[in-house]
Amino acid sequence: MTTFTGHDTLKTRRTLDVGGKSYDYFSLKAAEQAGLGDVSTLPFSLKVLLENLLRFEDGRTVSVDDVKAVARWLKDRRSDTEIAYRPARVLMQDFTGVPAVADLAAMREAVKTLGGEVSRINPLCAVDLVIDHSVTVDEFGGPGSFKKNVELEFERNQERYAFLRWGQTAFNNFRVVPPGTGICHQVNVEYLAQTVWTDTDQATGNTVAYPDTLVGTDSHTTMVNGLAVLGWGVGGIEAEAAMLGQPISMLIPEVVGFKLTGKLKEGTTATDLVLTVTQMLRRKGVVGKFVEFFGPGLADLPLADRATIANMAPEYGATCGIFPIDAETIKFLTFTGRDADRVALVEAYAKAQGMWAEPGSPEPVFTDVLELDLASVEPSLAGPKRPQDKVLLSSMAQTFTSDLATAFKVPAADIDKATPVKGADYSLRQGDVVIAAITSCTNTSNPSVLVAAGLVAKKAVEKGLTSKPWVKTSLAPGSQVVTDYLAAAGLDTYLDKLGFNLVGYGCTTCIGNSGPLPEAISAAVEEGDLVVAAVLSGNRNFEGRVNPHTRANYLASPPLCVAYALAGNVKVDLVNDPIGTGSDGQPVYLKDIWPTNQEIADTIQASLTPAMFRDRYSDVFAGPEEWRSIATATGQTYNWAEGSTYVKLPPLFEDMKPEPQPVSDVHDARLLALLGDSITTDHISPAGSIKKDSPAGEYLLGYQVRPTDFNSYGARRGNHEVMMRGTFANIRIKNEMVPGTEGGVTRYVPSGEVMPIYTAAMRYADEGTPLVVVAGKEYGTGSSRDWAAKGTRLLGVKAVLAESFERIHRSNLIGMGILALQFKDGMSRQSLKLDGTEIFDITGVEAGLTPRKDIDVKITRADGTSETIQVTLRIDTLDEVEYYKNGGILQYVLRSMMKQAA
Fold first, then answer.
1. 526: number of CA atoms within 13 Å, CB side?
2. Three-state SS across 581-635?
3. Are 358 and 326 in contact (CB under 8 A)?
4. How far is 225 from 233, CA to CA, in rounded Å?
């Protein structure tokens, strides 16, 4: 790998000597002396961006004026300047990694067709792909759960894994962390991230030190912000461009400071803290902004708690949620076994650059500031449908009972309904917890909440409590280190006795890989039309995500997951009511089994050691025998298997010419979907299980794939035929063109028939009819799923018109050559009284594109009347104009690389 440094017009390159080694670096203090003025009070995150611009200043993509604009930020605490930012590396997980590798392979095919050199298509910066999204909780609650789930994982994913093993050998700068290692974000925090990165400059041969930065193809990439590493989630499309050398265009962001004071009180957890922070920041409104944590409260906030807070940045809507470099950063890097020279460099570099924080340091200047006294945090959950909807534990039972009538429309007569479970001696009731899962990167990275869960289990077992028989329990840690310290503390035994056996190392319930409920349980839920609950230590609880049978989904700390497995119903008031009856016949309350903060700290001190990190990561890229034994192809281009239902050659570059065709206006377009507010990428992008009678299921049946082998949409992201059939097919999506329905259906307007969205889209495609989607506020919130944009394009959608867009999804739409259009203030689908029968003409594209220009949309109604409205083109930067003109960002990159080669 090579660090391509720029012209250094301001002459800021300096040398830093640490432990007998010399490092070149681009000095912020030297930049001050070169005319920038005092930048010492810039937020930490903007100092990272400033260094990036100094290092890459080349007079073309980065100018001296761009550098000066960051310094000027201090005056107005915001900026309209667009900059080109280049992260040091890219992090992927396998759901998004497979289509990214497929796109790279397709680019090589296109280069070969155009007569170019295929070996030029390689990542130009470090790329790590961690396989963590493919394990499903099929088996649970027993000692053989882990082994069986691993067997099923490799059986289902042989084609995908063989493809990734080919990519590991075919591409330079591309590493794969095999299955069974852990969740990508925890592996990143515990091993991959370095806080300060180094590379060799090909021009001088010198080692250059600079802040560790990255983008990731998972929105929770922000977890590494806790380690003072600037990074955030982008779509797979944008990540592919970044790893192919394209800068990320962005406005210098506003930075909201979040001041922490005090200390968490007895009985509260990092999860309670992060749910409080999420609610506060979501109410504040920080979409598109950086959030930076500071204040005296940092002194008592362990790195794991910081990572928990940073992880949830997508839930509070910020681009990142970053912490500065301080003594806790150094302590964690040392404890997790980072190289001693690297740890010494981190401290020396941070101090040399004015990036070191310590008690008494001057507070940075921020655009705005929020403040939280940690002592005010109360035990909490969030739900039943959104992570920002905090519910105090003390009011949980009352809130859910109210939600049954209001949010879930359960008639009063059915509030206490009981439905017998076939073959069992119990019935299911409203609010029964059918899933209790210790899962997700957010909390399974944090020893304090996992040890707390183990201690709750220990005390519960000692009092004779058991999990309720209708609860599907699971433990899916973020790394193998977790099971090491739980075992060292002797807590694994007690978790096992309550059914929280190890089910796998990876993302499970939080991303919809909860696996099926026992057949008798799901049958009772359906028969009684019951609102049953999942309680999970995750970060996402959107409708239809966790499990198709759980309509109420609550985020909670791992110890509360255990508590609700014991209680069995979210209507149990855990603060005031008994959680169960002990073996002595006496009622047991949550307070009786809840550990003290000192117990948790003492257990961690006695059981978690640096050797655990060194041992587990000493050979991290080798993988288990199942991985090493996979047969894989060789060669610069992939040998695509015609009958593969997992990996197919993407159609993005079919018939691509060396020069793009002129862009055109959109005429006579029909509406494919009319959608409301907060449509998430879970609603848009295929996720979860594949139904037998869905278009995707029918496609797989056509290839003689048994329904038991359908796997999930996530596992089949390398097959565009499956994915486009599952786009807009979420079971909870509501298309207002078909009032009163849920699921991926629409009205085919010419005939009035109601049919799957995919089927209608293909009919329109056969007729040559372009399509548009209209939506409300916050369109595309949630995970940074590239298929939410890819699938939309493959269905023939030319434009999405919404009241507002989530940052990543808007970027992805442009990256796929789809117009993102935004209603002017006060205008909406309701004010326009749209019903889906309209015809749309979008003009002003052919006349020339500039960022955020006004575009005319003519709406012709079924009765022949029409009106023309003006909307804002949400192509926000000049680079995005070029991406759109080329039909997408990958086409732009490929053409650019071909021209450079020529």
1. 9
2. ECCCCCEECHHHHCCCHHHHHHHHHHHCCHHHHHHHHCCCCCCCHHHHCCCCCCC
3. yes
4. 12
Preceding omega of 750 cis (within 30 degrees of 0): no
Q: How confident is the model at residue 545 (pLDDT cuts 50, 70, 90)?
A: confident
Helices (H), 157-235: 158-170, 184-187
DSSP state of 191: I
| DSSP-derived secondary structure for 703-759 | TT--GGG--BTGGGTT-HHHHHHHTT--TT---TTSTT--SSEEEETTTTEEEEHHH
In sequence order, the 6+-apart residues with CB closer than 8 A to the CB of 802 are 774, 775, 776, 777, 779, 820, 821, 822, 823
Phi, psi at residue 200, to the nearest 5°?
-95, 130
pTM reported for the whole predicted model = 0.86
Q: Considering only the C-alpha atoms of the chain, give the largest distance between any 2 of them, rounded to a whole number of Å.
A: 82
Residue from 137, 195, 425 nearest 325 by CA:
195
In DSSP terms, 233 is beta-bridged to 216
Across 74-78, average pLDDT: 96
What confidence category does residue 70 fall into, taking pLDDT thresholds of 50, 70 and 90? very high
E strands present in 775-814: 797-802
1 pLDDT higher than 50: no
Q: What is d(CA 67, CA 31) in angstroms, rounded to the nearest whole number?
A: 9
Does pLDDT of 117 surpass 50? yes
Measure the CA–CA gap between 641 and 123, rounded to whole angstroms. 24
Residue linked to tokens 């130009």 = 124
Q: Which residues contact residue 614 at a Cβ distance below 8 angstroms, ignoring those fewer than 6 apart?
A: 337
- For 333-401, the three-class secondary structure string (H helix, E strand, C coil) is HHHCCCCHHHHHHHHHHHHHCCCECCCCCCCCCCCEEEEEEHHHCCCEEECCCCCCCEEEHHHHHHHHH
Distances (CA, A) of 475 to 136, 536, 568: 12, 10, 17
Query: Quick check: helix, strand or coil at residue 807?
Result: helix
* DSSP one-letter code for 118: G
| Axis-axis angle for helices 447-462, 303-311 (nearest 10) | 100
Q: Is 831 exposed, middle or buried (0-12, 13-18, 19+ CB in 10 A)?
A: exposed
Return d(Cα 293, Cα 290) in angstroms, integer.
10
Collapse the DSSP code of 497 into the 3-class scheme (helix H, G, I; strand E, B; otherwise coil) and give the result: helix
Phi, psi (deg, nearest 5) at residue 374: -55, -30
Residue type, 163: F
Rounded to 5°, the CA angle 213-214-215 comes to: 150
Residue listed under structure tokens 């470099």? 325
- The DSSP bridge partners found for residue 823 are 871
Residue 734: pLDDT band by 50, 70, 90 thresholds?
very high
Amino acid at 386: R
Tell the residue number behind the tokens 């035929």, with chain if given: 721
Q: Tell me what the mean pLDDT of segment 288-293 comes to.
A: 96
Record the tokens describing residue 281, joined without a space: 């920041």
d(CA 322, CA 313): 9
Cβ 323 vs Cβ 306: under 8 Å: yes
Question: What would the mean pLDDT of 341-349 be, rounded to a whole number?
Answer: 98
The 10 Å Cβ neighbour count of residue 705 is 17
- pLDDT tens digits, 524-544: 999 999 999 999 999 988 888
Give the residue carrying structure tokens 């990190």: 613
In this structure, what are the phi and psi dihedrals at residue 152, rounded to the nearest 5 degrees? -65, -40
- Residues of the chain with pLDDT > 70, as a percent, come to 99
What type of residue sits at position 871? V
Q: What is the pLDDT of residue 100?
A: 87
pLDDT at 616 over 60: yes
Spell out a b/e string for 151-172, using b for 16 or more CB atoms within 10 Å of the CB, else e.
ebbbebbebbbbbbbbbbebbe
Per the structure block, which two tokens stand in for 659?
A: 């020069």
pLDDT tens profile 408-448: 999 999 999 999 999 999 999 999 999 999 998 888 889 99
- Measured CA to CA in angstroms, residue 597 lies from 264, 267, 277, 579, 602 at distances of 10, 7, 21, 21, 9
Q: Which residues share a beta bridge with 475? A: 438, 502
According to the model, what pLDDT value does residue 899 have? 84
